[in-house]
Each structure stands twice: as structure tokens, then as C-alpha cells.
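Good morning C.,

I know you're traveling, so I'll keep this short. The sequence:
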Amino acid sequence: MELLDQNATLPETANLVIIGAGIVGWSAAHFLTQAGWEQVIVLDQGLLFEDGLGSTSHAPGLIFQLNASKAVCQLARWSVALYSELEYQGLRCFFPVGSLEIAYSRARHEELKRKLGHALSWGLPAELIEPSEIQRRIPILNTERIPSALHVPSDGIAKGARICQALAARAIGRGASCYPQTEVTGVEVVRGQVHAVHTSRGTIHTSRLLLCAGIWGPRIGKLAGVAVPLTPVEHQYVKTSPLPQLAGETREVVHPILRHQDRAMYFRQQADCYGIGSYQHEPRLIPSEDLGAGEKAIRPFTPSDFEKPYADALELFPCFGEVDLSYRINGMFSFTPDGNSLMGESADVRGFWMAEAIWVTHGGGAGKAMAEWISTGRPPMDLREMDCNRFHRHAASRAYIRARGAQQYREVYDIIHPLEPIREPRCLRVSPFYERQKELGAVFFEAAGWERPQWFTANENLPIDAAWPQRNGWTAQNWSPVCGVEHQATRERVALFDLTAFTKLEITGERALDFLQSITANQIDRPEGTITYTSLLNDRGGIECDLTVTRLGAQRFWVLTGGTGGPHDLAWIRSHLPTDRSVRIADLTSAYCCLGVWGPRARDLMAAVSDDDFRNEAMPYMTARKVYVGHVPVLALRISYAGELGWEVYAPTEYGLHLWDLLWDAGRGLGLIAAGGAAFDSLRLEKGYRLWGTDIHSDYNPYQAGLGATVRLKKGEFLGRSALECIKSQPISPRLCCLTFDDPQVTVMGKEPILCGDAVLGYVTSSNYGYSVGRSIAYGYLPSEHATEGAAMDIYFFGERHRARITREPLFDAGNSRLKS
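The C-alpha cells, ready to paste straight into the viewer:
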């Protein structure tokens, strides 16, 4: 393969410029040129392919595909499929020797059962094996303290640099160009659109670039005014001298790769030697702005950090003590604030695409996904967890990136509970009710920087029903029986829920209505004061956003959506705005606080604090009115995610504390309580309300999700309409189904496989106990032939199967009489 020399002249134009010639960049170039793209240019500041500048060149290449995220697991599976078909100069690029994740503690042993459940859910073949089988697969391993291991047969070793060479040969053979030793010095942006890439060798005019620069990504992003929230972190890797026990072994690798997560370590055979990686040491962060051009991603080894890991390695592999360590480095990798990659097109600069913080494990799959995303405008599957626009503004600060990146490094092999809140930074965003909530003993979780109450210790004195499940172990973590108390108090009396974190967008302009009609599946052209629940779809009919639209004027609308997914939804809406500025969008999230006032006595409470009319005739369900609560001007929306009579009450933030006090004082005689997010979740689930990001997302359409009633095909053209017309004309499968457990004491957490015999039908999207209906509930997508009422199946949870049956939904107040009373 012939690469251009250092003095070659750059083309003046390109259809796409890829910045970074590592495994992600070359994978993207391969898939793009395979799809017919021309004038694709790959730039890199270093020499190719093993110059040590990038993480690909020093990565040990261990491919562990299994992940708690279905999407992350799928990226890894695509990578394995790609790497397995590659050769370079007759040499293999991938060795499918399998993997072992060993348990060294009881907690890890149980965690492996949970991971096996994930493997079943995602369709990845895996098994739990005993010490004798572990010993057979790695004879030099000391298995005395190992009760079990998770074995994934299709995992293995990827040769990163060799993969790059094979992919480069393919891409260049189809017309792509590569320019090594070319530093990017600027990104020209004109009217919010990429216009050109300036380099040390000249300027390339292009409307698209794909950033795959790894640890240098933030530097390139800054040139275009785009935040790339990641930090480089040093990670230790060593290699032994030849081991007598492996004397004469010339094959690249035979033993399975091994992960010792109780000691934050991994191991891989390298012919007659062994490689050892360690995450045990405190994070060594390198500010991205301190990385000079051409600086290598390999740092000097720090021996003191390896003293404890080496002792742990000898405990597992005593034979390592017979030889020296011949190779020792601190290599740099990228960590983001939440540990996931950064993929997609920036919401701030059109044409600025990125695939950052991606390891060799996912590099091939990420390149495949980015090629389709750039070509069609949508990824091949739901990638919300990796969407580069998912973060709120505070996540772009250096302090936040460093603090969260360091913690992600510390926790990379930890057992993380799904409900475990982050420890730092905290109290970044608090509602005006925060001090009152603290007085009531609020237990706060963090979401998108907000402090959000999950339950209140002030409610511990309220009665607990003896029939409710007595949780223990995994399901009892980050939970309290107070959640059930608050649930029942909402159903029986009235409760205040802090909804301030909701994202509040105001859409105005002379074409605001036409615009919303064009991107929503439901009918928005309704009278002023009407609330419409709707989905925003992609061209395949997949649900990109799930929100309400309230019409406040002829061309004035409020769009309300979840707090965590707000940046994603805002980016999606902004990406479809007309270019003539006939539609404007403003983010009012911080300008307004909100309280959910819900329960059968909600009307009594509102009447006690307001002179306005809250009777059903004056303010029916799914309508909104401007009213006063005492002296406080509010916008009251009669809607309830809890499935009870009540209102979302929005007020300017500066009035928030007074609003709380008015309602709290007036509610004393009505049995008012403050309730948290845990009760909120169980309330919504027994009403069958979907949660975006779990029950619904872009992999599913409204008909599959049971939201067909929110689709208005006859209203006129809208994004996704053609796809829905085709979908509706065919059998709908899979379908989101409600299941209830035969044993009401069983509670699961989500992502568990749903089985019929040995066949995996789907997995749990949401689960909780329904305190009003006295049943344990799970939702999941099931093939239509199995989606019949009464059908029995099993849900696998920590090694045990629990019988559940499909049940008609919603389980509570099917006629919505409480909502509309």
C-alpha cells in the first residue's frame, strides 16, 4: 500500500475529511467508500501505523463484547464481524480465543449471573463455567479462589495496527486519500456550517468532517467551537519476558483473554509471554490542552502504581514471578463524563461529525454506524447513549470533564447498580424547593446535574402495607419502602412532585405551527390551551423524541420533555428548523420551576390557594390555562404522568419557594405529602405510561410501542409518515407488552431476558411494583405470535427463572376516570 509523502499537495476540495487515522477513522473510511463515497480524505498528524501517537497503536486489543448497554454490545459485535474477515499480508487480524471474566468474591459471582442475563438479552452466546473448566482453558492460572467465570466464546484479540492497515488498503483501493504528518490547524465555520479544514499542508474546502482524533479530539473541537467532553487518562500495561511454562509457543494467542474485575485488571497471552493491564492506580489525567502536536499517547511507566497490581497478578499467575517484565508503559485512553463514546453530528456546527472516546473493541462497529449515520442522516440503531449532544452545558467545563472522567476510570470494572447516583460533582443544579426538600429528609439522586428527590424520610412514619414485597440484595439497593408509602399517598390524597428538571422549550415564529406539524406524529393544530402528547419520528418511523406540545397562541407553543434527554430532543428539533428563521426556539428550562400537584384531592388544594376555577368544566383534562396561585403567576397544565387528577404548575423560578410554601401550608389538612421520583416511576408504570430511553426509543415505532392512538396519518405530511403507512399495513412485531409476575414478591430491575423455554423472546424494558394493584410489573417487546393475553413465560434474574404472564394494560384506571374527574 502506497501512502502519500510528507510533501504531497492536498486536494482543494473533499466530500468528507476524516481527522485521525486510527481504527475508528479507517473503519469509517472503509464503510463510506464501500457505500460509494468519493473524495474521502484521511488526515493524521503522525506516521502510520505504529508510531505510538494514537491509542490504537498501543492498545492491547482485548475484545470483550458484553456490555450492560445493548447498543455498546452491538457495536462490539459488529467490530468482531469486521475484524474476523480481515487479513493483511496473509496475517490474521483477529483471534477468537474467547474470554473469561472471573469471580473473586461472592458479589462478583452474583454479578456474573446478572451479566449472563445481559448476554441472553442481547443474543450474545455466553455461559458460566466452573473452576475445572477455567483451569482447562488457562492451565497456568491459579483457580483456588475462583468459584466461577463468565465465558464468551466469540471474544478475542484484535491486532489494532494490522486492522488499520487492512482497512486502509481497502479504502485507498476504492479512492480514499491519506495524508500522514499533516496537522489540522483550523476548522472554518460559516453561518454554523463546516466550510473548510486548514492544515499544515494547506486548506481543504469541505462541508463535512468526521473527528476520530481520540485524545486530541478536544483540541480539534475547540478550533470549530465544538465541545468534545473527554479527558485523556493514563493506563498501565506491561508484558512479561518468555515464560518457561509456555516455552516453544509461537502462536500469537491460544489462551482466552481474562478479566479480573475484582482487582481492576486484565490479562492476555502473547505467544510465550503474557500481557497485564491494570486500572488499580488513581487516575492520572492529562489535560487535552497540554497535549502538543505530535506528542505520543505513550507516557513513562510509573512503577509505584504497579506494586499492588503486580502482587495481585502473582496470586493468579504464580509463574510470572519467575521472569522479568520486558515491556512497561502508561498508555493514554479517553474517558467521557459518563463513560460512553461521543458519536453523531454536533448540534452547534452542522457538518461537524465525531466518533470519539472509542476503543478498539468498538472501533469497527463505530465506523459502520458513522458511515450509515452520515450517509442517511440516522444511525443504524438507537445510539442515544453515545449521542454527542446528550450532555448539558455544565458537562463541557474542564472541571466537570476531569472530575467525571477520573471517576469513570476508577469505576471501569466496578459493580455499578442501575440506580447508583454519582458522588461528585453534586448540587450543580437545584430547584427553588431544594431547601424545603432537605428539611423533609429528601434522599437526592443526581440527573443531568439536578438534585432530584427519590423519597423523603419525613414519610417514614406513614403506614407500610405488609403485603408489599420485602426487597433484599440487589433490588433493595438505592431504594426504600417509603417509595410505596408515597405512591399510595398520591393515589389516596395529594402529593407534590418536583418537576423543575423538565426541559421547557418555547417555539414561536410565523411558521411555528407548520413546523411542528411537520415533525410530530399527532395533530398539533388544535385550539389554544390544548395539550398534545406526541412522538417525533425519524424517516423509518422510529421514536426519536417523546414529549407534549401545549399551544399557547396562534404561533406560540411550549414543548415539554424529560430533563435528562432534553439536550438530545433540543438538538433533534434544531436540526430540522427551516433555514429562513421563520421558526425560533428558546430553551426556558432554567427560567421556570414546576410542581406536579397530583391526587384525588388535587382540585381541593388548588382551589384553596387560587381564586381561579379548577373545575372540570373550566379546565378539562389535557388543557392549559394561565392562573394565579396566591400572588404567583403560573401556567397550569392539566396532565398527569402519575395517572391521577392534577396539574403541572409552572412558575417563574424566582416565585418557586413562595409557591411551595403556599401549597404546603394549604395542604396540611388534606394529607399533602412531598413525593419523589421512585414513587413517580411506580405510579406511571401501573398506568402503562412509556418512558423514553427504556420503553421507547428510535429502534421502535409508535405501533410497536402501543402508541398508535397518538398517530394522525390523515393530518398531512410529517417526518416518518410514509414509513408508518407501510408499517401499519403489515403485522406489527415485536409489540411492547405488560407482564405481571405470578409471585408478587418478585422484583427485577430491567434488561433481564424474557424466555419461552430456552428461546429468548425479548428483554425487560421497565419494571417495578404496582402498589395500587398489588402486582409486580415488567414491560418488554415480544414477537406478535407470543404477545397474547395470558401467555406465560419466564424472566431470568440472577440465575433464577420467575414466571410472568402477559396482562391487559393499563393495570390501573383503564378508563382514565381519575384523570378526567
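Safe travels,
E.
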